């Protein structure tokens, strides 16, 4: 298989992972799982997180082992740009972690609530902390990390482009879910806070 064929294959594999990751959390799939799994649905989110991680790791390490040509390296003055992007990604990651319910994100709170016989936790809408400046800090930081992590090679460029498209599409789909769930409350939030990068709000 030539270089071009290898790039097509790796891009296709990452697209499949992204598609699986999105499909399993899509509203119709989650609703059907909730109906069919009954009380075991409390484990769905944790299973989703574990499956995503287990399938991501071999794909990630396989990609690193593929032969590729260097296109761009963060050398010389570019180190400052890379450092700024990595720092931005860190700020977005930590800021988001401080405001999001990580226990629910990982699926642990759902299991605990089910075990105690309590109602499943409802979605909590927050607008404080980092969420005063950007609506989706993890998507924003993820974009910065994708481009700042490592040099740009023929293989990594394909992966970076796939992940960039995935993160942008993910943010867009998340916006649709939030508007459907929260209505005018979220539309007001959209008008006040930008979606991905601090600055002037835009949808």
Characterise the protein shown here.
It is a single chain. The chain has 203 residues and is mainly alpha-helical. The protein is built from 9 helices and 2 strands; from the N terminus they run H-H-H-E-H-H-H-H-E-H-H. It has helices at 3-23, 27-37, 44-65, 78-99, 102-106, 108-116, 137-148, 154-182, 184-192, and strands spanning 70-72, 152-153. The protein has a two-stranded antiparallel sheet with strand order 1-2. The mean pLDDT is 90.
Give the tags:
single chain, two-stranded antiparallel ribbon, mainly alpha, 203 residues
- Helix % is 55-70%
Described by strand count, sense and barrel closure, the largest sheet is: 2 strands, antiparallel
Can you write the helix and strand succession as a string?
A: HHHEHHHHEHH
Share of β-strand residues: under 5%
C-alpha end-to-end distance: 42 Å
Q: Shape, please?
A: globular
What would you call the structural class? mainly alpha
The tally of strands reads 2
Summarize the structure.
The protein is mainly alpha-helical. It has nine helices and two strands, in the order H-H-H-E-H-H-H-H-E-H-H.
Write the layout of secondary structure elements.
Blueprint: H1 3-23, H2 27-37, H3 44-65, E1 70-72, H4 78-99, H5 102-106, H6 108-116, H7 137-148, E2 152-153, H8 154-182, H9 184-192
Antiparallel strand pairs: 1-2
Helix pairs in contact: 1-3, 1-8, 4-7, 7-8
